[in-house]
Task: structure prediction
Amino acid sequence: MRVMIVGSMSAELGEAARIAISRGAKITQADDVQPALAQLRAGRGSDVVLCDVQLGIEELIAAMAAERIAAPVIACGTRADAVRAAAAIRAGAREYLPLPPDAELIATMLETIGGDGRAPVAADPVMLAALRRAEQVAASEASVLIRGESGTGKEVMARHIHRRSRRAAGPFIAVNCAAIPENLLESELFGHEKGAFSGAIARRIGRFEAADGGTLLLDEISEMDVRLQAKLLRAIQEREIDRLGGSEPVKVNVRILATTNRPLEAEVRKGTFREDLYFRLNVVTLTVPPLRERPRDIAPLAEMFAHRYAEVNGLPYRPIAADAMRLLETQPWRGNVRELENTIHRAVLLAGGETIGPEAIELPLDDGATPAPATNGAVARVVAAAPAGTPTGLVGRTVADVERDLILETLTHCLGNRTHAAAILGISIRTLRNKLREYTAAGVKVPAAGLADRVPA
Ligand SMILES: Nc1ncnc2c1ncn2[C@@H]1O[C@H](COP(=O)(O)OP(=O)(O)OP(=O)(O)O)[C@@H](O)[C@H]1O
Ligand SMILES: [Mg+2]
Result:
């Protein structure tokens, strides 16, 4: 995870940086908005930008949008900066990080935005076989297509391949093709020259060049539009890229990994995915099995998450009781490892005794994409917040209706902070964003849109 700090390192922002470093983040720093933009253009990319609200954060966000630099910007400020913080959120800042920084909040933020450096946990023979296969192909230069349902650990696997490859000392750059709007994705991948489009006031190095000597992960490749697929194919075949508006191709030495949670063959048949690109990427296929097909992974994963979330929340570690573990081991886990992770995170917060007992395990609905029913901690908290004697009025309403109110109220409660709201709701930030997109499309007002929503089409 690469974090850019915009502002002085001597103040509280420096403390935030130190916390991020202790959680394994790599830090770059710029004193002000213009030098920060210069670094971003030069390809010293960043997975997230933390910017002091006292600086020209609106200007930074606007310039990044105009120059098609897609990284979330997080506004940082003290309580006294509340008005500026609100303005930053309106301008498109993804989150607001209150200063002095809270270690737990930073850890949650980093975790939500990017993966960590740990090796995959695996104990089930099915997963051990998948890992062996990954390690076998890691040393080669071959493109690898990583398949698997949502939340199975495809990105974890990609990072593992990189760490075990000869490129381990080089950069690992991930681009989520689904999360970046189409008009930004091309610049994001290939960069652009000054004047390539009206907002392009300077040259910008793309992710391909940033990944030079390392690995480029194209996450959710099936979401890439066909025109861009042609450019990608050329980049892979010719080992060179064209910056937008550039006249000379640029040589790049990059290994490509790609993930998909949809069968690409069907996309090829439909004509939405190029067959030649499919064959290029699919030199080796690696399938990350769903969690329900590797039940012996559940216990070690749950234990690992119990440790992690105790640490993240500053709580003493408590083991998972045997009956609670049996409960975990018999669930279908349609949301896979991510769903298990959320369940354990909640359990760590809810457990009362010396161990994590079954009463702390709140199981999600059957549909992994939907938050848990009324026994869920988040619902319980919202309901509990109503004045005593107020009827909750849930009966007679549809699940979708209650879910929408729950999500929007939680988001408002978190001042529009998606990371925090997703953590409280016990859903992934991706699920939250998808829901919010649905609501917006249906004409429902959603608090403070993020950067991606504000970029002109
Ligand atoms: N084997 C594993 N060991 C440790 N953590 C894991 C493992 N598999 C998954 N995780 C954790 O589960 C979560 C989901 O993993 P990841 O993001 O890699 O899944 P994904 O398949 O890329 O999901 P999506 O399709 O939604 O992008 C992450 O928080 C990751 O750290
Ligand atoms: Mg992923």
